[in-house]
Design brief:
Blueprint (H helix, E strand, L loop, with lengths): L1 E2 L7 E9 L11 H5 L4 E3 L2 E3 L2 E3 L11 E18 L5 E10 L3 E3 L1 H6 L11 E3 L19 E3 L14 E7 L4 E7 L2 E7 L6 E5 L21 E4 L1 E4 L10 E4 L8 E8 L3
Antiparallel strand pairs: 1-5, 2-3, 2-6, 4-5, 6-7, 6-8, 9-18, 10-15, 11-14, 11-18, 12-13, 12-15, 16-17
Length: 260
């Protein structure tokens, strides 16, 4: 992908996002697919007066949707209110490109190639990892991702979910998958703690375990979460986890592990 910026303003950053999960003529029945769509990230490099981004493709049999975000410096800070009336002070502004849609036929005619290797490593937490995670309260550390719903990171049969965590004080980590939560005690401050979770460790509001890791859509790492009832259920919601103490946690090697 090629990005042409407005060079009359200082460019702070450029991010490219793309997905194979788009669908032509989406309707209201596609709501769950839309809100759980996974957008891959690519960091472009400057080449002369333009920026170029590589887009490794998972498939040439699915459409490719892609857009760019370009952030420019503001002449002076601007305050406003964001999600949930959160007050913020902005020193930059974002310009998004129009969404470009490429059909499978166009990909194939252009000679595009795909790499469909399945990966056990979901997130190594390298620099820039948060670009493929999201939060509605970005000033806090909890983050969620839809990577686990992508075919490339889909759980193998009989897999467990593994993760390494380090924190400065004893805490509880909540790992949330599609409304099911696993609460992990972190009792080794300053040390990397290995966590391995089975599907049976993830419980919903009425203490049912998640049926399995097949077809999951969203994974979240958090300090506390509210478990809510299903629509029409009068069961009272409840909180799991507790307020985080100390500095933000560090993570390593979120991955699927198997015994096969």
């Amino acid at each position: 992908m090629t990005i042409q910026t407005d060079n009359s303003q200082p460019v702070r950053s450029i991010d490219v996002f793309y997905t194979h999960d788009g669908k032509a003529n989406e309707t209201a029945s596609d709501h769950d697919d839309v809100i759980n769509r996974f957008w891959r990230h690519s960091a472009p490099n400057r080449r002369g007066d333009v920026w170029k981004a590589k887009l490794p493709l998972r498939s040439v049999d699915k459409p490719l949707w892609v857009y760019a975000n370009v952030r420019y410096e503001l002449n002076e800070p601007v305050s406003g209110a964001g999600y949930y009336y959160r007050i913020y002070l902005a020193s930059q502004f974002n310009v998004s490109s129009l969404l470009q849609k490429v059909t499978p036929e166009q990909l194939k005619s252009a000679g595009a190639k795909s790499s469909s290797d399945r990966l056990l490593m979901i997130e190594p937490f390298n620099q820039g990892w948060q670009k493929e995670w999201f939060s509605y309260t970005p000033d806090t550390w909890p983050r969620a991702t839809h990577k686990v719903g992508d075919d490339q990171w889909r759980a193998p049969d009989q897999a467990s979910l593994a993760l390494q965590v380090r924190c400065s004080e004893p805490n509880q980590l909540v790992v949330m998958i599609d409304g099911f939560a696993a609460v992990v005690d972190l009792q080794q401050p300053g040390q990397w703690q290995d966590i391995v979770l089975n599907a049976s460790d993830f419980r919903n509001l009425i203490d049912e375990s998640i049926p399995g890791f097949d077809n999951i859509r969203e994974l979240k790492l958090s300090d506390a979460e509210r478990l809510n009832p299903a629509r029409g259920d009068t069961t009272k919601s409840r909180m799991v986890g507790k307020a985080w103490r100390g500095s933000d946690p560090e993570f390593q090697n979120l991955r699927w592990v198997t015994t096969q």
